[in-house]
Amino acid sequence: MTIHFQIEYFTNWGQELFLCLHYQNGDMACLEMEYDGHGIWHTEHTFPDEEIQGEDVYYSYMVRNGDVIERQESGSHHIIPFTSASRLVLSDRWKNAGDNEIDQRTVAIPHVRLNHRPLWKGAGTAIPVFSLRSSLSFGIGEFADLKPLADWARKCGMTIIQTLPVNDTIMTKTWRDSYPYSANSSFALNPMYLRLQDVGILSDKEFLDRMEKTRQELNSLPEVDFEKVMQVKTEYIDRLFEEFSNNCFATKQFKQFFAANRGWLEPYAIYCYLRDLYGTPDFNQWPENERHFSNILLNKYCVPGNQRYRHILKQYFIQYHLHIQFLEVRKYMNDMGILLKGDIPIGVNRFSSDAWIYPQLFNMDCQAGAPPDDFAVDGQRWGMPTYNWDAMKADDYQWFIRRFRKMADYFNAYRIDHLLGFFRIWEIPLKYKSGLMGRFNPAMTLSDAEIDGMGFYQNPRDFSVAPEGTPETNVLFLEDTHRPGTWHPRINAFDTPVFKSLNRYDQEAFRRIHDYFYYCRNNSFWEQSAMDKLPVLINATNMIVCGEDLGMIPQCVPTVMEHLRIMSLEIQRMPKQEGIAIANPASYPYMSVCTTSTHDMSVLRSWILDEMPADCGMTDRSASPRQCEDIIGAHLASMSMLAIFPLQDWLAIDGSLRAPDPAAERINVPANPDNYWRYRMHIGLEQLNEERHLIGVIRSMILNSGR
To answer: Which of 156, 437, 600, 613 is within CB 3.0–4.6 Å of 698 for a Cys-Cys bond?
Structure first.
């Protein structure tokens, strides 16, 4: 096993850093570290198998000036639990006295190309699986399409590919099931990503000819026709199941898969059967004895010898083949030095199999969302229930741990969607229609006495219901449904008629209450909330952890991310420093992922042409290939460990390959709850792999940046 050690430490003149390895027999080895000139010391050590022998690795750092030891870390040594990973990359912090309980994140980096620079840094591309286009896909991207994408990435010198969530989203069997952040299962994979030809060749040639014609028609479309793809693929899968399932179930590989996944697979299969039987995923409309999962249903449906069991077995068959195809993709990518990065959504659909199986883990009377920001001034309502963290904690977060470990079957890294939700989630009671009527949960709510003590001498209850004939948002306070009689100030209520009707003193008092509540009162409370759960979850696997830390960020978030070594997300158009319109990539920290845009934003070209602030200091607003190349180049030159750009933005640097209309390349509009997720590459992966000029340009950019 090879471990790359690196630590930020600013030495005085003449000082040098050493890594001290502490062995079980009491011996110690001190390794001199190299300095990169920017505060980072690093070294790399390969441990022979006979040296580790299944033991943990203990180490510490010390500062020497010549032969004199001037400083050593205090407290217990750093520890790396034994792992079978072939390579680890560490990003450490110095241990001071009283700082003994530091969470050391170890990151497994399998077989990546080393760039022989002081810090390991990588570059890559991001694209949803459904957006991939190849000559073999079926009108929608499939797991197997990640292979030619990886071929292209390798030619370009990239080391990572990022996707959106890949879990099963099929619920209504309409285009609404295209939404990848509203899965019906946190464990099952999406059947639409199955490469049907690889499951088996059907004996019915007439059917195959008809399917091939349909496949080519769907594959020629500029966007995904989700409903048609789902209809045709479902018919095809039914035929595959009838012809190949018996042989499949007899294999050793299937039996191993079933044994390892039975805990979630059986309930999920029953859920799918009942969803189809009753024509709705809303289990509240099912017969009363089937509205929640129970072992009675397990014994009723998962029993061989009846027709219902064939429906259950079909789900096993589908998930098994998705599993082996996805595992094959991961191995293919890792063998060539490409990491695969996934995405863990913050929530689940309220009518998902998760909510049906574990209703106690969710607050079904509320929905999650996001507070107002520049992209959605009225806030966002996502529809999914919020988590009952008390119930989660009662069984040591086992549902989340199993979820993360299942994801580790396929991914080397993951992005925690809406990381802020693990500190506090924006929660909107179902009775409200506007995202502005949300509140943070958990939060230290305000009592009547506290509100009075801050100079607002009126009863908050009088300002908690909108006057008749006015919008529901025309309020100043929201009563907490979990703690009745306590209050949240309504966010950004300063433009409401009820606020404007207050006298100047009451307006000033409400502003004080509002700003204190949202920016000061809850910081320590939210920090503890995150530290109660995040360490347990991220330590469940060795995957690289990245956090989507955008939006209304509490002061405690960077502290927790630094403590747990969670990489931040840096986006130029969403600077985290106040008072600037556009961030400077040169200022990004090492423990970060930088990018030009995300699936929730317009692509780079649209941002330059239509959305870039007038006072940004950038005189060229043409979105020319050279300008796009310069912007991406500035990101590649940053200190960020990972620079991952949407495929659309990579293509923007080539005038002959970029899409004609950049607006058509946008994947999602967060403020639109009816967004259809249907973007597809406008050129095929086979063609992309033959574009030597673009490959050469990208390869030179990455190589020259030291990635």
So the answer is: 156
